[in-house]
Amino acid sequence: MDFLNAIVALSNFVLIPAIAYGSQLALGALGVTLIYGILRFSNFAHGDTMAFGAMVTILVTWAMQAAGISLGPLPTALLALPFGIIGAAALLLLTDKFVYQFYRRQKAAPVILVIVSMGVMFIMNGLVRFIIGPDDQRFGDGARFIISARDFREMTGLSEGLAIRTSQGITVMTAVIVVAVLFWFLNRTRTGKSMRAFSDNEDLALLSGINPDRVVMYTWLIVAALATVAGTLYGLDKSFKPFTYFQLLLPIFASAIVGGLGNPLGAIVGGFVIAFSEVTITYAWKKVLGYVLPEGLEPDGLVQLLSTDYKFAVSFVILIIVLLFRPTGLFKGKSV
Amino acid sequence: MSASFKNIGLFALVAGLIVLTGVMQSWNAALTILNMGLISAIMALGVNLQWGFAGLFNVGVMGFVAIGGLATVLIATDPVEGAFAAGGMRILTALLLGAATIIAAVLVQSRLKGMAKGIATVVILLAGFFIFRAILDPGVAAVEAINPALQGNLGGLGLPVLVAWPVGGLLAAGVAWIIGKTALGLRSDYLAIATLGIAEIIIAVMKNEDWLARGVKNVVGLPRPVPYEIGLQNDPGFVERATGLGLDPVTASTLYVKTQYGLLFALVLVILLLMAQLALKSPWGRMMRAIRDNEVAAEAMGKDVKTRHLQIFILGSAVCGIAGAMMTTLDGQLTPGTYQPLRFTFLIWVMVIVGGSGNNFGAVLGGFLIWFLWVQVEPMGLFLIEVMTSGLAADSALRLHLLDSAAHMRLLTMGVILLLVLRFSPRGLIPER
């Protein structure tokens, strides 16, 4: 019984949150990695793109809630998601036309594009704060739990509860669907294949008649979709605050780099590696160990390796370790 | 000739903007902008050393600025009574042990091979971590228990606050050495992310380690290198001189204090600018630029690229540390919660790019100009929105929302300025020669 309790506690506090967080990171890292692979620069504005997409989704959600449209037990935000994607796509395509295109034609060094993306980051950050304000926004509705801790306890008779929030369930489901569609697109469709060809060898791709403008446009569209989905899911799971999205930049980049920049599969693995390490290292293990260890050996302290405020340190340390020992990431990434 | 004429004109323009603030708003506001402008110019000089001279992409400026601020607390505040006896030794021992663990792990890396290497590293790191925590935690608890409402930290050395400025630079240099050793070998994008992460970690440590500088409980009332306003107001000689100039003593005292700060900061800026100019014009500076422009060629000529990069990374970070110590001294308090990357890293980058990377005068100009805009865009935006929405009803929701949001105009403006400069004058206002 104690062993079962330990597993339930572990799932409740470590596995489920880490899987949800990992899915969000993976979606974010996929966007970063696609831009790196095809447009060949690290996009510092990605966190704020996520915030922008999520913001449009929230505004539409509010409008729908006001109009009385709802999805029943599911959050209305799912219905609003396509509008958020359209909003983010419009913004990204406009930015590309007025900002990035010029440097691409010039064949500017990647580091110049990174600095340009810093400027875009400022503008998007300002836009989001200008439109929705810098404060916390709540927009989740529908059922809060798939299983609440109390129901679980009554169902199983265990002393530990297992709660799965709707937002966590939806996060994982959506992430699986989005990733499946993305990989199908990249591997099976003509456009997807031309994108991969462009990423592997630009000159050869141009030589075989691939239209670079088309590839770039599709990249931005996909990135807009990924960023909006990631941003909205993160907002549903935690809460929407523009500044936290900016801070997500670090774990997202860490995920993409750990997996190997430019490699979509790596981005997903990287997201989960980072999420699981962050959650396990900052989790207080007292409860789980209390169940598992024999009588008399229970720990006195919280058995928390690091306080939760050091979660950045965790993603960073993993990043450094991977870079020192496998400079191109766990899966073979590319280097510009 | 015309180039230097243009440069003088640009500096005169910024000076004119600050004077205009003095005339239109108040001289107090103008001096506040000038003082932070001086500090921003020093930070921009530091970043320019790294980016403009050597092409190192450091987006961890905030961390070094914060370390400089920490130095102010560690140097200038009085020691907390009994804190060192209660847990200071334990904390120091733990820190030394932590350092020893890492050194041991690094040594194992270079001495052992194969499976033994991996196992030994993991064992050393794990054992080291738990011993470190076992020694550190009671010490921290003991120190933080001392008068937690006001102190609860180790305190400082009680030295004059001016000592903290060079020490801030040294501390930042030390941290930069550690970071440079591990991260400088990385490619530019990776270095950027690594420095971004390190800055966040430094801030996290400062927020959470209360024994160090009280964390988010802040340290207030830091000693000042200049007299206090209240002291001046009680000084009959000063009051007499102020009234002689036709000023009321309260205004006169704040102006006097701010001018004193301004003079001190200007002195530091002039010294650093002079040194940076000399460095740029020296063989060393030419070598740096040669490395920046073509690393492979420079290496083929026998230049030690790695060591040179480490050198300039440390120097630039030290300059940022000095500026950070100066800023904390000016504020009179250390508030780790207020360090944000947009303000302390990316804004400095805007200064360097807009001013002209690779040119010290450009960086200084950028520091003043961008800081002026950062402060003044908010009231200007508010004014603009008020004028634009004056046709709407006074209680219209749109108008109220826009007025509320005017504060965020500054981020937008900074982004637009950066993009415009990058597009139409990519080498900055005062380009590198």
Could you describe the 3D structure shown?
The complex is a heterodimer of chains A (336) and B (433). By secondary structure, chain A is an all-alpha fold. Chain A has a domain at 24-251. Helix content of chain A is 73%, strand content 1%. Chain A contains 14 helices and two strands; from the N terminus they run H-H-H-H-E-H-E-H-H-H-H-H-H-H-H-H. Chain A has helices at 2-39, 46-67, 77-106, 110-132, 149-156, 166-188, 190-200, 202-207, 212-237, 242-247, 249-259, 264-282, 286-292, 311-325, and strands spanning 145-147, 164-165. The longest helix of chain A is centred in the first third of the chain and has 38 residues, at 2-39. Chain B folds into two domains: 2-79 and 155-424, ABC transporter involved in vitamin B12 uptake, BtuC, CATH 1.10.3470; 80-154. The model of chain B has no long low-confidence stretch (mean pLDDT 90). Chain B is mainly α and 433 residues long. Chain B is globular. The relative contact order of chain B is 0.16. In chain B, helix 1 (2-24) crosses helix 16 (360-388) and helix 2 runs antiparallel to helix 14. Chain B starts with a helix and ends in a 9-residue tail after the last helix. Classes of the chains: A mainly alpha (336), B mainly alpha (433). Chains A and B meet through helix 4, helix 10, helix 11 and helix 14 of A and helix 7, helix 15 and helix 18 of B.
